[in-house]
Design brief:
The protein is α+β, with helices and mostly antiparallel strands and about 220 residues long. The protein is built from 6 helices and 9 strands. Strands 1, 2, 3, 4, 5, 6, 7, 8 and 9 form a 9-stranded antiparallel β-sheet that branches. A hairpin with a 2-residue loop joins strand 3 and strand 4. Helix 5 crosses helix 6.
């Protein structure tokens, strides 16, 4: 059996589904994002809400993981997680981060950069209360990013917390939302012959400046 490494150099794909130009794109990046997100959802893509979060620790090592967008508006992009996790600790030390959506089937990528802060407690409480019971218990059961001896630790913790709180677990103090406030957006649309469309939006004097980047 050949190794996947043997075929990597030969893998090719021609991107020909759509285009993105200055006349058809929205003047505001949030409007453009909403348009593309709606199209990804309407296309019934697998997990169109999944995004890569990139942070940098105090040792200057970058780290990425997948999180799920749970809201967006003019204030920014929101997701929820454990504040004591690696990403939480890195954001506490360096609040600048980046997000990326990759909608493979639509040949599209959205990149977002900005400063991150916690959402207010009322917002975190409201979202936590909307989660399924097992997810609420799981937020208590998992010491996220910590070394554990085995899966049985999680199962045992979940059983203990479920018995303790029954049907009404409160939101853990170490769990809640983050909001990234964008100051840069980039929209990438795959095009034929690797002449891809890249439009960047950046903040300048309180307004969004839209400009094309070479692929």
């Amino acid at each position: 059996m050949s190794s996947p490494n043997d075929t990597l150099a030969a893998l090719r794909k021609s991107y020909e589904r759509a285009e993105l130009d200055e006349t058809s794109s929205a003047p505001d990046p949030l409007m453009q994002f909403e348009r593309w997100l709606a199209e990804a959802i309407d296309a019934q893509l697998p997990e169109p809400n999944a995004m890569t979060l990139a942070t940098v620790g105090g040792d200057l090592r970058p780290s990425t993981r997948i999180v799920l967008i749970k809201g967006y508006d003019a204030r920014g992009i929101v997701w929820y997680t454990n504040y004591d996790s690696r990403k939480g600790q890195e954001l506490a030390g360096n609040p600048w981060a980046a997000l990326q959506f990759h909608w493979v089937e639509l040949e599209r990528v959205v990149r977002i950069e900005g400063r991150v802060g916690k959402v207010d407690e009322a917002e975190s409480d409201a979202y936590y209360a909307s989660r399924p019971l097992d997810s609420r218990v799981g937020a208590w059961a998992s010491p996220q990013s910590q070394v554990i001896s085995g899966r049985d630790v999680l199962v045992k913790n979940a059983a203990i917390q479920a018995a303790k709180y029954l049907l009404s677990p409160p939101r853990p103090p170490h769990w809640g939302g983050y909001r990234l406030v964008p100051d840069r957006w980039e929209f990438w649309q795959g095009r034929k012959s690797r002449l891809h469309d890249r439009l960047r939006y950046r903040r300048e004097d309180g307004a969004w400046v839209r400009e094309r980047l070479a692929p």
